[in-house]
Amino acid sequence: DLSPPWHLASNQALYTSGGGNREGCRAAGVPVAGYDAQWRRPNVTDKMYAPSAQMAEQAHADKDTYEAMYEASIHDPDAFWGEHGKRLDWIKPYTKVKNTSFAPGNIDIKWFEDGTLNVAANCIDRHLKDRPDQTAIIWEPDSPTDGSQHITYTQLHAHVSKFANVLKELGVGKGDRVVIYLPMIPQAAYAMLACARIGAIHSVVFAGFSADALAARVNGSEAKVVITADEAPRGGRNTPLKVNADKAFEKITTDTSMLVVQRTGGDITMKDGRDHWLHELEAKVSPDCPPEEMNAEDPLFILYTSGSTGQPKGVVHTTGGYLVYASMTHQYTFDYHDGEVFWCTADVGWVTGHSYIIYGPLANGATTLMFEGVPTYPDAGRFWQVCEEHKVNQFYTAPTAIRALMGKGNEFVEKYDLSALKVLGTVGEPINPEAWNWYHDVVGKGKVPIVDTWWQTETGGHLLTPLPGATSTKPGSATHPFFGIRPVVLEPETGIEIETIEAEGVLCIADSWPSQMRTIWGDHERFEMTYFSQYKNMFFSGDGCRRDKDGYYWITGRVDDVINVSGHRMGTAEVESALVAHPAVSEAAVVGYPHEIKGQGIYAYVSLMAGQEPTDALRKELSDFVRTEIGPIAKPDLIQFAPGLPKTRSGKIMRRILRKIAENDFGALGDTSTLAEPEVVDDLIANRMNR
Ligand code: ATP
Ligand code: MG
């Protein structure tokens, strides 16, 4: 029952012949929800950039290799992953590969289930023979004048072994939980790898989170130890992390101790019997810590989702499948080769940091850069200065950062030598074509391929992404599935798969892949409800998407955020991208609100470029602009100028809050624990548009 891999050349005949016998639900007379052609912005979205011959030549995969590997991965997942699982060192090799069920009432996902391995040994020990003196981690501190550190694989081994013995000293053993609440310092990497080494399950909590959020995550996982630091420097200011952790401990009900890293030497108080300095314990323990033998299906970590659509979910990832997929995507998506310098700007508090700062790169023996600071400190050239200084080859960031930097002017980019850049990546939200073009033209000088990677905390690694030497890209499209991924587009109400090449609806994944989440920590029922109950036998992503005439996938926004204007369903992404295409606009978010005639109207929140005046004339101009860019139905009914938009701590726009404001319902804003700047919301409420 395989859906055709729409994007493969070998299947062109299937859809250029008008769909053949694959008319699907359209032929059956089921109305297909979604856009008509009138919603497209053809001039923007049909541009294509082919990989250069040189890139294709040296890449791990060119177009033919990708297509052959993709087909093999779908045709026989056991054989494909059985082979690629060998990229890791196994203590006891697996004999079984895939054992997964999405059947209602029996959601059960196992990969490599009889194999054993250790993640830290794969990320460190096995590289000691070939690359003992190669830099594993380049650490770039908040302040450019403080100087970076280069940590070799040999040094990493020593740090992690000691750290692991400290955790043992504090009573942590296999299966115990450890919460990591640290800034972006090397000790965050050591802590994660130390847990992996002794088989403890880590739960990293972003250092920007409040004491309450920390306490909830510690209590939820009954963690034995919380690892924190005295202070966290960021953007020139020090966050009092230890003080926050102390506050959290007032609400922590479990028997938990605290391990403190000295980062700034700031003044803090240690509680006797509960709190310990890392450096003091490290001085006492043995430098030798043999890695624990773990089953492939033993949990590696718990990590909470960003909380964009509601209460964050405690996602559980396991050992073998996760590492196979993280390392393979790191190698192919970024076309990583030995000796290159890879930089992912995410925080280790997000899955992007887990898979593409720590586990994927280190499993591949890469040099990975860890950055403590922010993109705009000391000025908006900081990213590019770091790229120049460390000759970064692959650079991976989020659309929110690209949009922010785009608004600051090109001179910050042009000052620096970015000639080492080979691949540019993006993740986290749909990237507006305007931001994509800026990234491509100004940062990449029109020569560096962009990989727009669509994935989630739940998926562990990239699911839809171009490969630099294989895929022709279109600005704003996440293009094609990675090996082993079977995306399907479903009609939202009926759940029927849309089998025509052009499709728009709900994005689901029809079969398991190795780094799929296994459960929600402590709540398997919520796991089944959230991901497998709406549509049977599928993993439900919660995102809407469209597949275009060339088989390219475009994420249209969250299914929860779909707007229904006079019976036409619209994702948020395209309307927002049309607004961002206007030169006065730096960022935009649209939501639906109740409208007497149309059912729902479109309410747009618009942030302007520096120096732009928020006038009624501009309001009208923007409305008209969207009308000509897309069509009359997408024209915003109300436009509110907003100096800031509510975002999660990971930088995603929280439309559910904007919807509440547009609906005039400020009483219940829902879970705001992951909201970055709560003051933004007060301002939006105060300046709400009257109808
Ligand atoms: P929650 O699940 O708690 O609401 P969240 O979905 O924002 O939060 P994450 O797992 O951090 O939590 O983010 C995954 C989501 O981010 C995806 O479902 C998708 O909506 C969005 N996303 C990530 N990468 C891309 C991309 N390249 N293009 C479009 N959207 C993306
Ligand atoms: Mg989500």
From TrEMBL:
<keyword id="KW-0479">Metal-binding</keyword>
<feature type="binding site">
    <location>
        <position position="352"/>
    </location>
    <ligand>
        <name>CoA</name>
    </ligand>
</feature>
<dbReference type="InterPro" id="IPR042099">
    <property type="entry name" value="ANL_N_sf"/>
</dbReference>
<feature type="binding site">
    <location>
        <begin position="452"/>
        <end position="457"/>
    </location>
    <ligand>
        <name>ATP</name>
    </ligand>
</feature>
<protein>
    <recommendedName>
        <fullName>Acetyl-coenzyme A synthetase</fullName>
        <ecNumber>6.2.1.1</ecNumber>
    </recommendedName>
</protein>
<keyword id="KW-0460">Magnesium</keyword>
<dbReference type="InterPro" id="IPR020845">
    <property type="entry name" value="AMP-binding_CS"/>
</dbReference>
<feature type="modified residue" description="N6-acetyllysine">
    <location>
        <position position="652"/>
    </location>
</feature>
<feature type="binding site">
    <location>
        <position position="585"/>
    </location>
    <ligand>
        <name>Mg(2+)</name>
    </ligand>
</feature>
<feature type="binding site">
    <location>
        <position position="569"/>
    </location>
    <ligand>
        <name>ATP</name>
    </ligand>
</feature>
<keyword id="KW-0007">Acetylation</keyword>
<dbReference type="InterPro" id="IPR025110">
    <property type="entry name" value="AMP-bd_C"/>
</dbReference>
<dbReference type="InterPro" id="IPR045851">
    <property type="entry name" value="AMP-bd_C_sf"/>
</dbReference>
<dbReference type="GO" id="GO:0005524">
    <property type="term" value="F:ATP binding"/>
</dbReference>
<feature type="binding site">
    <location>
        <position position="582"/>
    </location>
    <ligand>
        <name>Mg(2+)</name>
    </ligand>
</feature>
<feature type="binding site">
    <location>
        <position position="580"/>
    </location>
    <ligand>
        <name>Mg(2+)</name>
    </ligand>
</feature>
<dbReference type="InterPro" id="IPR032387">
    <property type="entry name" value="ACAS_N"/>
</dbReference>
<keyword id="KW-0436">Ligase</keyword>
<keyword id="KW-0547">Nucleotide-binding</keyword>
<dbReference type="GO" id="GO:0005829">
    <property type="term" value="C:cytosol"/>
</dbReference>
<feature type="binding site">
    <location>
        <begin position="428"/>
        <end position="430"/>
    </location>
    <ligand>
        <name>ATP</name>
    </ligand>
</feature>
<dbReference type="Pfam" id="PF13193">
    <property type="entry name" value="AMP-binding_C"/>
</dbReference>
<dbReference type="Pfam" id="PF16177">
    <property type="entry name" value="ACAS_N"/>
</dbReference>
<dbReference type="GO" id="GO:0046872">
    <property type="term" value="F:metal ion binding"/>
</dbReference>
<dbReference type="GO" id="GO:0016208">
    <property type="term" value="F:AMP binding"/>
</dbReference>
<feature type="binding site">
    <location>
        <position position="627"/>
    </location>
    <ligand>
        <name>CoA</name>
    </ligand>
</feature>
<feature type="domain" description="Acetyl-coenzyme A synthetase N-terminal">
    <location>
        <begin position="66"/>
        <end position="123"/>
    </location>
</feature>
<feature type="domain" description="AMP-binding enzyme C-terminal">
    <location>
        <begin position="574"/>
        <end position="652"/>
    </location>
</feature>
<dbReference type="Pfam" id="PF00501">
    <property type="entry name" value="AMP-binding"/>
</dbReference>
<dbReference type="InterPro" id="IPR000873">
    <property type="entry name" value="AMP-dep_synth/lig_dom"/>
</dbReference>
<dbReference type="InterPro" id="IPR011904">
    <property type="entry name" value="Ac_CoA_lig"/>
</dbReference>
<feature type="domain" description="AMP-dependent synthetase/ligase">
    <location>
        <begin position="125"/>
        <end position="512"/>
    </location>
</feature>
<dbReference type="GO" id="GO:0003987">
    <property type="term" value="F:acetate-CoA ligase activity"/>
</dbReference>
<feature type="binding site">
    <location>
        <position position="566"/>
    </location>
    <ligand>
        <name>CoA</name>
    </ligand>
</feature>
<comment type="similarity">
    <text>Belongs to the ATP-dependent AMP-binding enzyme family.</text>
</comment>
<dbReference type="GO" id="GO:0019427">
    <property type="term" value="P:acetyl-CoA biosynthetic process from acetate"/>
</dbReference>
<keyword id="KW-0067">ATP-binding</keyword>
<feature type="binding site">
    <location>
        <position position="543"/>
    </location>
    <ligand>
        <name>ATP</name>
    </ligand>
</feature>
<feature type="binding site">
    <location>
        <position position="558"/>
    </location>
    <ligand>
        <name>ATP</name>
    </ligand>
</feature>
<comment type="function">
    <text>Catalyzes the conversion of acetate into acetyl-CoA (AcCoA), an essential intermediate at the junction of anabolic and catabolic pathways. AcsA undergoes a two-step reaction. In the first half reaction, AcsA combines acetate with ATP to form acetyl-adenylate (AcAMP) intermediate. In the second half reaction, it can then transfer the acetyl group from AcAMP to the sulfhydryl group of CoA, forming the product AcCoA.</text>
</comment>
<feature type="binding site">
    <location>
        <begin position="234"/>
        <end position="237"/>
    </location>
    <ligand>
        <name>CoA</name>
    </ligand>
</feature>
